Amino acid sequence: MENEEMQSSQSINRPLLVSVILAGAFVVILNQTLLNTAIPKIMGDLSVSAATAQWLTTGFQLTNGVMIPVTAFLIEKFSTRKLFLTAMILFAAGTLTAAIAPTFPVLLAARVLQASGAGIMIPLMQTIFLLIFPVEKRGAAMGMVGLVIAFAPAIGPTLSGWIVESHSWRVLFYMILPIALLDIVFAFFALKNVTKLTHPKIDLTSIVLSSFGFGGLLFGFSSAGNDGWESTKVTVALIIGALALGLFIWRQLTLEKPMLEFRVFKNKIFALSVFIGMMVMVSMIGVELLLPLYMQNALDYTAFESGLLLLPGAIVMGIMSPITGRIFDKIGARPLAIIGLTIVAVMTFLFSQMSASSSYLYMMVVYAIRMFGISLVMMPIMTAGLNQLPNHMIPHGTAMNNTMRQVAGSIGTASLITVMTNNSKEAAHQGLSHPMIQGMSDAFMLAAIIAVVALIMSFFIKPMNASKKGPKVVKEPVAEG
């Protein structure tokens, strides 16, 4: 069985496999932000409040965050084809249900179904790419992954804003359903099994603890952005999440074959790459959320205009991700991270200095340059860390990386919104003319400080000549097995 799997990984049609996986991942990840600017239309059509409608986005992210930690187990339990096809079928079923949903509960259930597929897709895509490409070409491969992960959610608000201005929000789902169905058909014929199966036993206790742990933290931090940290709901969710996560980690360290391997953090470079990636995610996601809020609430721009402002940055990141990957293969992650995080820190600081007179073009250019900086950091940092792990640990590394980024995104968003809200109130009490702008400036300053901390940490990444030695050492256990 092992020989068959090794042969299939060597004889695959790599370009075809990559195309099928990227197409599926693109439509799946696009849905993370597709409804952001369509929420008001949905509220009117289905007669729900803003707080209720927001669950279409929060519920998707929450389910996504709960599914990701389980993927390491799923990748070792089920073949590549079965897992990819299952993820895409779940997503397509959710998309069809969302398009015809007669009521809000049905629409929310459809979003949860979509997210069940999406949560499997991202770690699976990264694991497959790391296994089918040699170490010296992984940067370029993960650059393509970065293109999808960054570009797809970035164009979501712009695309939905444009469509819902003249069409029903249901068109958003009808539009991506044929692409998902076509990808399922192509995957059925083209996809090969490339992952090594170890057939771990299902540990229901770990699954329950993981769901309550990561789910509780994600829900608590997400709710804190709207309800405030003093909310009972937030406090209870965070306590349950922290306790369940602590028990989950303890259980994984005591099991012979854990569902999610926390021992990956014993590798210092991997651990460093995860923490830098978390800080970059806080800075990126937080500003992507704050900027449209700032434009619509403080400067009276429309949802479409605020979404359109983010588009050039998304295009820059989409173009740069594959290029950055190739550069990474030549010079390593360290110089890219130092340059990229310097750009991110400076551009975020410029956002903190904005005023009511800041022009649309100025904000668009600063955001685009900022995304250029993030494109130099995001995937190279992740790839540098994962390159330190042996092949049999890569599913656990990708699941851990994506889980930590999800948690960081929720924590960062909640923290930045809290700073913005509290400081806006304080500015209003002081009688300042533009209190919300003051609150936004303080939140952007916090994001800039986080970027500076990540920049300092990036100096501790191994240089290229040292990091290239890592994978050669860790490959040996795989050859023996």
TrEMBL record:
The chain crosses the membrane at residues 16-35, 55-75, 82-101, 113-133, 140-159, 171-191, 203-222, 234-250, 270-295, 307-324, 336-354, 360-386, 407-423, 443-461. It is found in: Cell membrane. It comes from the Bacteria. Gene3D superfamilies: MFS general substrate transporter like domains, Multidrug resistance protein D. This is MDR family MFS transporter. NCBIfam families: efflux_EmrB. Keywords: Cell membrane, Membrane, Transmembrane, Transmembrane helix, Transport. It is a multi-pass membrane protein. Residues 17-466 form the Major facilitator superfamily (MFS) profile domain.
